[in-house]
Amino acid sequence: MQITVTVNGESHTRDVEPRLLLVHFLRNDLGLTGTHWGCDTSNCGVCTVTLDGVPVKSCTVLAVMADGKQVGTVEGMERADGLDPVQQGFVQCHGLQCGFCTPGMMLTARCLLDKNPDPSEQEIREAISGQICRCTGYENIVRSVRWAAEHEAAAKAEVTS
């Protein structure tokens, strides 16, 4: 089947097998290896990407289901002026250890902050609850998202002053 998917703002048309998973399309066909492949059962969440702005586990989405849609990966998070505040937060607060869960965590955090710019610790924990981190115990990930929220709010306040 031929599909056209916009990934990180760039349109890609490919012939794919109907059974091809989105995670494999992104990694193997497009070379976007920031999307990790873990359990194949949607339990771990390391394959999380955005599909039309909503976090999804790409190991449970067929590539053909993304035809005509917008897909966001960790490679698309960087802004023209540098790292996204979520990426900065993960660096500043040591929100990553081995890095395996990091791309999915960051995309989920970005979606949360886009909807709720000042989430509570509980709201952050709930947002990332579909992903497993085997290294950090989540404390530094939660701190990273709070850091991003606070710094994003401060940056917006500077612009409006």
Looking at this protein, list some descriptive labels.
161 residues; globular; 5 helices; alpha+beta; metal-binding; DNA polymerase, domain 1; Ubiquitin-like (UB roll); 37% helix; 2Fe-2S
Quick structural gist:
Helix content is 37%, strand content 14%.
Could you characterize the architecture of this molecule?
The protein is an alpha+beta fold and 161 residues long. It has helices spanning 22-29, 85-92, 102-115, 121-127, 139-160; strands at 2-7, 10-15, 48-51, 54-57, 70-72. The chain has a 5-stranded mixed beta sheet, with helices on one face. A hairpin with a 2-residue loop joins strand 1 and strand 2. It is globular. The mean pLDDT is 94. InterPro entries: 2Fe-2S-bd, 2Fe-2S-bd_dom_sf, 2Fe-2S_ferredoxin-like_sf, 2Fe-2S_ferredoxin-type, Beta-grasp_dom_sf, Diverse_Oxidoreductases. Pathway: Alkaloid degradation; nicotine degradation.
CATH class of the largest domain: Mainly Alpha
Strand content: 5-15%
Placed side by side, the strands forming the largest sheet appear as 2-1-5-3-4
- What Rg do the Cα atoms give? 16 Å
Beginning-to-end CA distance, first to last residue: 52 Å
Number of strands: 5
Say what oligomer this is. Answer: single chain
Outline type: globular
The fold-level CATH name of the largest domain is DNA polymerase, domain 1
Keywords: 2Fe-2S, Iron, Iron-sulfur, Metal-binding, Oxidoreductase
Pathway: Alkaloid degradation; nicotine degradation
Protein name: (2Fe-2S)-binding protein
Pfam family, one: Fer2_2
